[in-house]
Every structure is written in C-alpha cells, then in structure tokens.
Amino acid sequence: MKQILSLLGIVGLIIGIFMLHGGRLGALIRISEIILIFGVAILGLIVSSKISTIKIMIVQLKMNFGKSKYTKEYYNDLLSLMFELITIAKVQNIKALDAHVESPESSSIFVKYPVILGDQETISFIVDAFRLVISSKLPAHDIEMLLEEEIELLKEEFEKPSMKLHTMAEAMPGIGILAAVMGIILTMQNLDADVGIIGQSIAAALVGTFTGIFGCYCLFGPLSSAIHDVAEDQIAPLHCVRSVISAYCQNLTAHLCVNAGRKHIESSIKPSFIELEDTVNNLRTSST
Fold first, then answer.
1. What CA–CA distance (Å, rounded) separates 72 from 272?
2. 218 with 239: CB under 8 angstroms?
3. Do 122 and 240 meet the contact criterion of CB atoms below 8 Å apart?
C-alpha cells in the first residue's frame, strides 16, 4: 500500500504542478508516446533477460506491492522449526531427520509452520542443508562454506531482476529522445503550416522526452530499488538457516544454534533474546 500511494503521489504532484502553471493535461499525456516508449523499454527488457529472470521479477513485484511475509512472526516460526529439527538430531540422531527432510509436506514438524512451508526457497534450502549434513561427514567450516556458496548463487539469481529493471529504466530517457526526434522529423515535414500548429507539434515531440525521463526516475528506477530490497528479504532467511546449521555442526546446544541464526535477522523484526528463550521453553514444555 505504501508503494502504491507513493507512486500515485509522484504522478499527482507532477501533474498538479504542471496544471498549476497553466498546462493542459491533454498536452502532457499522449497515449502514442506512452505506448512507444514503455513498449520499446519492456520489449528490450524481455530480449535481454532469461525467462526465469522475468518470472522472478514478476514475483518480486507482487511481493513489493503486497504485504511482506517476512515479519517477526515469520522468523519466530523459522527459529522454532529449526529448534525442533536440531533437537531431534541431538536427542535421537541426525538420521532421525530423514523422514522429515525427505517429505516436508507430510512431516509432523514442518506442517506446524505453514508460513515457512509455503516459502519454497527457504524450505528447499533447509532440506538441502540437512541432507548435506546427514549424508556427509565434512567438518563444520566446509559445510558452512558450501552453504555460503549456495546462498551467493541464489543472491545473484534474486538480484538479477532489479539489475535488469534498473538497466531498462536508464534506457528510457534515450528512448524518449528517440520519440522526440521522430516528432521533430514529422514537424519538419510540415513547416509551411501555421505557427500555432508547428508549436503544438514541437510540444508533442518534447512529451516523448518527458515520458522517458518520467518512466526512468519516477517509476522504474524506484521500482528497481524496491525489488532489490525484496531480494535481500528473500535471502535473509537463508543466512539465518546457514548459521543455525553451522552452529549445530560445531556441537552447540539447540538453543544456542537458533540464537546464532537470530543474529542475522533485521533488527526491526528480530525476536529479542528473551522472546526466543520463551519460545524455546514453550517448545520444550510441549514436547515433554
């Protein structure tokens, strides 16, 4: 909602100031210019991007305009899930996690946390991380390095849409100039017309430059920054899980393992140490 209101505010402010100085709305908005500039920019984005990147971009744009799922409750559930999994691995053995890891959808632990189960990227990372721990006897630092490498690859994948959108935004003023040049060419073909008509043609040509600059700095530029933040939100839970797994491999207690993961959560949504301790104690009580 904040993003939508902000974009509407930008449009309203620009149009309002223009009309306040005597401008006509019809002179500022030309459908043909909008179709040309936005159409060329979007088609250029499609040409330069993989289908997978475009799909991620669409998902991130939806997440940007919707309510973020990465809340304090989300991370509380994530840490609770990791605590339960680590507790099973320590009380029983690491092999006891096979039934849960191989089929999270039917696991008695995973189904308790539907928000996490619905986050496919995080669930896949958790499953792959525990599979690595179960199937290998690598030292803790090697496992942490492998998980860090996987996160870096996913980070590049999630941040690529914002880079592509930023590139598209930077191209829009140039496309606007292209549209303006086309308008000037058309005007030059009718130099024998009245001065008023020639003036209207030049003004219409300049609208192309305006539309390109508007698309760059007022729309797609801010959107590219916004989905970059969304990409960081998508990666943050993976760092949390990596730290928990690494702490487990160093033979720390389940409580200390999830506390290690807690340190990678943004401060505004991070559960406090006391809140985490209460959650852990509740889980211990419910399991006895």
1. 10
2. no
3. no
Number of domains in the chain: 1
Q: What is 144-206 written as a DSSP string?
A: HHHHHHHHHHHHHHHHHHHHHHHHHHHHHHHHHHHHHHHHHHHHHTTTTS-HHHHHHHHHHHH
Is 194 inside any structural domain? Answer: yes
Q: Say if CB 144 and CB 246 are below 8 A apart.
A: yes
Give residue-wise pLDDT tens across range 196-208.
Answer: 677 777 777 788 8
Contact 140, 245 (CB under 8 A): no
**Structural domain of 93:** 55-287
Which letter does DSSP use for residue 104 in this model?
G
- Do residues 168 and 54 make contact, with C-beta atoms less than 8 angstroms apart? no
Cα–Cα dist 280/213, whole Å: 53
pLDDT in tens, 72-128: 999 999 999 999 999 998 888 878 888 888 889 988 899 999 999 999 999 999 999
